Amino acid sequence: MWNPSTVHRFAYCLFFAWVAGCTLWTEGLIEDRRQRGEGGSTSSAATSAGTANTTSGAGGAGGGRLLCGQAPAATATTCPPMCNGGCDDGVCIVQCHGEDTCKSHAIDCPSAMDCRLDCLGKQACEKADLRCPPLGLCQLDCEGEKSCKDAKVQAKDGPVDVDCVDDACDRVDVKCGTNRCRATCGPGAKKPKLSCGEACACEACK
């Protein structure tokens, strides 16, 4: 038979052993969760970093979204016949040199490259309609007496640049897309009209 003192001591020992065991188990659980929480944060941070790299690219292999003013690299492997000025580093050059050369013409830029329309000469591109590529850079260069008078530029999701001197851009109408839309004018030049719409940046002649 155990005496009461021995029973009490044994009970106390069991109680303290149970408390110590619970404490150790709880601390182990907390440590395990803490470590797992740190691992999750690292994974999340890595995922965020990967997303940032993808979305800040200019149309890279990951299909990242373009930044304002950027255009993806040209993917065309041949120079289309409409590029009568040739293709230079992924840019299709359409030359309209001489009086009335491209007057009232509709010019559809190739879809897989940048596009530049050079209008040089009296009314060379008067009332022309420049239809920009879906994502590529679209440029209109106007030089000569009313060379681009009443011309239209229809942008899409690529950036647009229009360069004007003297009265070359008289009543030029630019319908901006979702990317940057910019006009540059020489001293005293007629200014084209920019319809900014949803353009991420819109810079008219000053």
Which structural category do the helix and sheet elements fall into?
alpha/beta
The count of β-strands is 12
Q: Roughly how many Å apart are the termini?
A: 107 Å
Major pleated sheet: 7 strands, mixed
Principal-axis shape: globular
**SSE topology string:** HEEEEEEEEEEEE
Radius of gyration: 34 Å
Helix content: 25-40%
Count of helical regions: 1
Integer count of domains: 2
Strand order in space, largest sheet: 1-2-4-6-8-10-12
Low-confidence stretches: 10-26, 35-63
Mean pLDDT over all positions: 80
Strand content: 15-25%
Structure description:
Helices cover 25% and strands 24% of the residues. It has two domains: 1-50; 87-203, no CATH class. Strand 1 and strand 2 (91-97) form a beta hairpin. By secondary structure, the protein is an alpha/beta fold.
Give a short summary of the structure.
The protein is 25% helix and 24% strand. With 206 residues, it is an alpha/beta fold. The protein has 2 domains: 1-50; 87-203, no CATH class.
Topology:
Blueprint: H1 4-55, E1 87-88, E2 91-97, E3 106-108, E4 114-120, E5 129-131, E6 138-143, E7 152-154, E8 160-164, E9 173-175, E10 181-185, E11 193-195, E12 202-203
Parallel strand pairs: 2-4, 3-5, 4-6, 5-7, 6-8, 7-9, 8-10, 9-11, 10-12
Antiparallel strand pairs: 1-2
Keywords:
206 residues; alpha/beta; five-stranded parallel sheet
